[in-house]
Each structure stands twice: as structure tokens, then as C-alpha cells.
């Protein structure tokens, strides 16, 4: 029972003044823990410790009862050390768990926000695609209207040529009449004028 008598609590309580009066704070003495661990046989600290082999050795020894009692005492010592650490850092453990829960919640919220942003981007892409098609249609309409305006301007000029030629003939301005006639013929020979039915009688 030597190990049991050697077992000393690593905890101490310190009085501290808080806003709501004096309170006790738990303080952990790591020197006590190191001392307790030092008295535990090295065989139990070996990462390659084989528990079954050790149990068979104890059961096969002449003083198996004493060995089992010592093993129980060592178990109680380690268990007590663990209890001391948990008691000293209980609030810290709780805080860590709460922080972990908060982190998980924040990650969940962030994922939801990312999903919303992705959905918004997809909607924007669809709207942009629709807007782009509309712009292309409007641009095509503008080009067609521009071509029509240019065509109408040329038709107007061509229609005005015969009366002007008649005026030049009356003035006996034969060179001017000839130049204007050639200009009119050149305009009429253009491909886009072939579809204008009103110019066929000119």
C-alpha cells in the first residue's frame, strides 16, 4: 500500500477576489505530478508495453497477490493524477469544447453563405447571358436600320437626278448633264439598288 500512502493531491485552492466577492481558484502543482509519475515503474511507461505478457508474468510469480495489489495501487495513482488534471482544467476543457462548437457553427454559416454566393453568381451569369443576347439583337437592329437609312439617302439622291438633268439640258449645260447622268447610272448599278422597285423606271 506504499503507493497509496505516497499519493498526494496535486491540487490546491487559492482565494481570489472577484467582482462578486472572494472565490476559490484551483491550482495544479506539476511538481507533484512529476514526482508521482517518477515512482511508476518504467515498464508501464514503455510505448511497446505488452500488457498480456505482463499479466502472465504476475500470475505466474510466487507473490502474485502482492504484485496485483501494487498494480492496483499504481492504477489508482494514475487515475488520481488524471482526476486532478481534469479538475484543474475543467473550465478550460469546457471553454475549448465551446470554442470548437462555435468554430463548427461558424463553418456551417460560412458554407451556407458560400452556397448563397454561388447561387447568386449563377443567377448573375444567366442574367448576363440574357443581357448579352439582347445586346447582340439590338446591335443587329442598329446595323440594319443604319443600312436602311443609307439606302434611303442614296435613293433620294438618285430620284433627284432626272429633274436636275432636265434643268441642265434646258440650260444647255451638256457637260454637267452628262456628268450627272453618269453619276446616276453608277448609283443605279450598285447591287443594293437592284431590289428597289421604285428605281426601275428611272
Please explain how this structure is put together.
The chain is mainly α. 72% of the residues lie in helices and 8% in strands. It contains six helices and two strands. The chain has helices spanning 2-6, 30-38, 51-60, 64-88, 90-170, 174-188, and strands spanning 11-18, 21-28. A two-stranded antiparallel sheet has the order 1-2. A hairpin with a 2-residue loop joins β1 (11-18) and β2. α5 (90-170) runs antiparallel to α6 (174-188).
Keywords:
single chain, 202 residues, disordered N terminus, mainly alpha
Strand order of the largest sheet: 1-2
Structural class: mainly alpha
Helix content bin? over 70%
Largest sheet: 2 strands, antiparallel
Order of helices and strands: HEEHHHHH
Question: Can I get a quick summary?
Answer:
It contains 6 helices and 2 strands; from the N terminus they run αββααααα.
Can you lay out the helices and strands and say which pair or pack?
Blueprint: H1 2-6, E1 11-18, E2 21-28, H2 30-38, H3 51-60, H4 64-88, H5 90-170, H6 174-188
Antiparallel strand pairs: 1-2
Helix pairs in contact: 4-5, 5-6
Amino acid at each position: 500500500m506504499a503507493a497509496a500512502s505516497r499519493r498526494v493531491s496535486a491540487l490546491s485552492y487559492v482565494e481570489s477576489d472577484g467582482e462578486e466577492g472572494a472565490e476559490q481558484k484551483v491550482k495544479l502543482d506539476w511538481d507533484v505530478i512529476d514526482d508521482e509519475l517518477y515512482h511508476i515503474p518504467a515498464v508501464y511507461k514503455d510505448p511497446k508495453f505488452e500488457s498480456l505478457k505482463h499479466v502472465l508474468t504476475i500470475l505466474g510469480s510466487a507473490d502474485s497477490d502482492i504484485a496485483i495489489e501494487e498494480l492496483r495501487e499504481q492504477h489508482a495513482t494514475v487515475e488520481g493524477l488524471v482526476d486532478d488534471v481534469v479538475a484543474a482544467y475543467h473550465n478550460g476543457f469546457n471553454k475549448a469544447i465551446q470554442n470548437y462548437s462555435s468554430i463548427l457553427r461558424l463553418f456551417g454559416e460560412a458554407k451556407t453563405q458560400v452556397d448563397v454566393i454561388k447561387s447568386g453568381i449563377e443567377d448573375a451569369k444567366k442574367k448576363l447571358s440574357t443581357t448579352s443576347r439582347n445586346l447582340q439583337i439590338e446591335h443587329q437592329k442598329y446595323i440594319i436600320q443604319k443600312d436602311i437609312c443609307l439606302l434611303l439617302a442614296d435613293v433620294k439622291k438618285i430620284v433627284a437626278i432626272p429633274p436636275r438633268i432636265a434643268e441642265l439640258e434646258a440650260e444647255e449645260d451638256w457637260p454637267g448633264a452628262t456628268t450627272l447622268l453618269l453619276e446616276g447610272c453608277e448609283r443605279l448599278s450598285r447591287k443594293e439598288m437592284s431590289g428597289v422597285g421604285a428605281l426601275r423606271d428611272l
